[in-house]
Amino acid sequence: MFKSNFSNLFLVFLALLLNNCKSEEDLQVLIEEEEEEEEVQLYSCVDYTKVDNTDLMSYWDLFVEDVKCSRGGPDYGEINTSVNLKFDIQTPEEFASGVTPDHAGYSTFAGYCSREVVSIGVILNYWEDYTEIQQLWLMYHEFGHDVYKYQHSNNRSDIMYPSVTRGDTKINDFIEAKNRFLRRDFPGISYIECPGD
Q1: Residues 53, 32: one domain?
Q2: What is the pLDDT of residues 153-178, one digit of tens each?
Q3: What is this structure's pTM?
Q4: Structural domains in the chain (count)
Q5: For a pLDDT cut of 70, what percent of the chain falls above it?
């Protein structure tokens, strides 16, 4: 009988111990989630939630406003008088073939080698799978080619890195990268050469 009571007490103790450990793990997860929610957004003079991810022109308008208020200009809305932003939709045959574009967005010679033109395409199939931050990152990246004539960077934390940022990238990571991008202050910065440069 003593042995049976001891066994029962041991099982109760073990159950309480395991339950307590689980509760501590749950508490730690809650604390981490709360810390993520409490991250204070870095200052930005524009509201990044204003963009409409079904309207690429809203990203252009945001970029123009961002440059004006962050850097004091120039007004690329007045300089770039021909802005062509479009979604490219793969045909069912293209999609089924498994041959996919190597980038989610692209700029063209007409854009990056002309001061007045911005010409950017975005592959809709990729776009729809991106987070809001990835969409912002991609559009600023393509504006970097067409407006600033930036070549790709080899630093993953730069907007001009030739691959879209990770899905868990936070708004503050974007703001920090965007600030370096607008200041033209990132390692290895280089420019696209066009005829007549």
Answers
A1: no
A2: 999 999 999 988 999 999 999 999 99
A3: 0.78
A4: 2
A5: 78
pLDDT averaged per 10 residues, the chain (length 197): 54 56 63 68 94 98 97 94 93 71 81 91 93 97 95 93 92 96 89 88
Question: Do 102 and 8 reside in the same domain of the chain?
Answer: no
Report which DSSP code applies to 183: H
Place of tokens 């503050």: 172
Task: Clarify whether residues 67 and 11 are in a common domain.
Answer: no
Strand order in the sheet with 117-123: 82-88, 117-123, 105-107
Q: Is residue 102 part of a domain?
A: yes
Report the first-to-last Cα separation within the chain, whole angstroms.
Answer: 95
The predicted structure's pLDDT at residue 1: 47
Instruction: Output the CA–CA distances (angstroms, integers) from residue 187 to 10, 39, 41, 117, 152, in the order listed.
Output: 62, 27, 25, 27, 11
- Tell me the Ramachandran region of residue 149: left when phi exceeds 0, alpha when psi lies from -120 to 50, beta otherwise: left
For residue 17, the enclosing domain spans 1-38
SS3 2: helix
Residues 6+ apart with CB under 8 A from 191: 148, 149, 150, 151
Whose tokens are 């009571």? That residue is: 5
The answer to whether residue 195 sits within a structural domain is no
